[in-house]
Design brief:
It is a single chain. The chain is an alpha/beta fold. Helices cover 39% and strands 15% of the residues. A 7-stranded mixed β-sheet has the order 1-9-8-5-4-2-3, with helices on both faces. It has a 3-stranded antiparallel β-sheet with strand order 7-6-12, with no helix packed on it. Strands 10-11 form a two-stranded antiparallel sheet. Strand 4, helix 7 and strand 5 form a beta-alpha-beta unit. Helix 3 packs parallel to helix 9. The protein is globular and about 65 Å long. The relative contact order is 0.17. The structure holds pyridoxal-5'-phosphate. Pyridoxal-5'-phosphate (PLP) binds next to helix 4 and helix 5. Keywords: Aminotransferase, Pyridoxal phosphate, Transferase. Belongs to the DegT/DnrJ/EryC1 family. It comes from Candidatus Desulfatibia vada. GO terms for molecular function: pyridoxal phosphate binding; transaminase activity.
Length: 367
């Protein structure tokens, strides 16, 4: 049996009729940039998250950069990020001239450890960029308290957590502003690139709305130096269709996660289950196990035609791109252990129970 990590083609095929009609209507309409689909999607996604404003942009990375700039963060400022996040979180900070400061995750949830945030603060600290890694929110209640105490802005990288909640509140409204990615493999994914900023702050919303379109509110009149980072009409039309199915598809992901949790023979050190944090409802963007035999396990599963991935094999501060942080390498034993031991199992809204059972049997047989 062949088990792909994520079968994206199925995400189209299930919705082909609706998606075809939506895309065709954009094509026929003749208005391709910043039109009614972007505006409607922004309203619908804001309503879904429970916030006042949503601004569609070209990618998750751009969403993070624009929300940082909207808060006046730039050169000389420190922004705390999880040491084990995807590199985009750190790049958003460095691309606007600020410094990403890595902080260790909690070894169980793999989300940023609130206590270590406080230990990492300096006079230059301006903000925390919490990341909701793998589909569950960071420990936002504790992080909110720390940010209030130290007068720091709190942002969310919600790229892996569309629909996740923390104490009943959705990702996207747990801080001052949030960035989402709609990269095809995300829980809410377009058929191309896309992203969005969500916030309840009218000034931040206005800044991002202008900045994404060359800094102009009115065509050819530019109030700030902006960029070209627009969500396009075709992707917005696709996202409107897919948003209607997000909760159902998230619940299918939960069903698969439940099978993994019930059927795999977890054993301390050798195979460790993912842990859901207090107050969290998980949307299972990824199902990650940890194992001290990770590389052997991955190779074995590969031989059995089961595709797995590693999120992420090299922490951002150890990447060649971040040579200026290379002296920090030894300071992060937890994120380094996560990089060496974590393995993401196949998971998606179209993975059949038969295939999940096969993955479980194969893993149990390996051990
Ligand atoms: C996907 C992702 C991003 C970047 O999104 P793009 O749309 O690819 O720019 C940022 N942060 C995290 C945690 C992600 O998973």
């Amino acid at each position: 049996m062949n088990v792909p990590f994520l079968d994206l083609k199925q995400t189209y095929l299930e919705l082909a009729k609706e998606v075809d009609a939506a895309v065709k209507s954009v094509l026929k309409n003749g208005w391709y940039i910043l039109g009614e689909n972007v505006e409607s999607f922004e309203n619908e996604f804001a309503e879904y998250c429970g916030c006042k404003y949503c601004i569609g942009v070209a990618s998750g990375l751009d969403a993070l950069q624009l929300l940082l700039k909207a808060h006046g963060i730039g050169p000389g400022d420190d922004v705390i990020v999880p040491a084990n996040t995807y590199i985009a979180t750190a790049l958003a900070v460095s691309n606007i001239g600020a410094n990403p400061v890595p902080v260790e995750p909690d070894p169980l949830t793999c989300n940023i450890d609130p206590q270590r945030i406080e230990e990492a603060l300096t006079v230059r600290s301006k903000a925390v960029m919490a990341v909701h890694l793998y589909g569950q929110t960071a420990d936002m209640k504790r992080i909110q308290t720390i940010c209030q105490k130290h007068k720091l802005k709190l942002f969310e990288d919600a790229s892996q957590a569309h629909g996740a909640t923390h104490n009943g509140i959705k990702a996207g409204v747990l801080g001052d502003a949030a960035g989402f990615s709609f990269y095809p493999g995300k829980n809410l994914g377009a058929f191309g690139d896309g992203g969005a900023v969500t916030t309840n702050n009218a000034n931040v919303a206005e800044y991002v709305r202008n900045a994404r379109n060359y800094g102009s509110e009115k065509k050819y009149y530019n109030t700030i130096k902006g960029v070209n980072s627009r969500l396009d009409e075709i992707q917005a039309a696709v996202l409107r269709v897919k948003l209607k199915h997000l909760d159902e598809w998230n619940s299918r992901r939960s069903d698969i996660a439940r099978i993994y949790l019930e059927s795999l023979n977890f054993l301390d050190g050798r195979l460790i289950a993912p842990v859901t944090g207090e107050g969290n409802s998980h949307v299972w963007h990824l199902f990650t196990v940890q194992s001290n035999l990770r590389d052997k396990l991955q190779a074995y599963l590969g031989q059995k035609s089961i595709e797995t991935l590693i999120h992420y094999p090299v922490p951002f501060y150890s990447q060649a791109a971040y040579q200026e942080l290379s002296h920090l390498k030894g300071n992060f034993p937890i994120s380094s252990a996560v990089a060496d031991q974590t393995l993401s199992l196949p998971l998606g809204p179209h993975l059949t129970k038969e295939r999940v059972d096969y993955v479980c049997e194969t893993i149990n047989a390996f051990f």
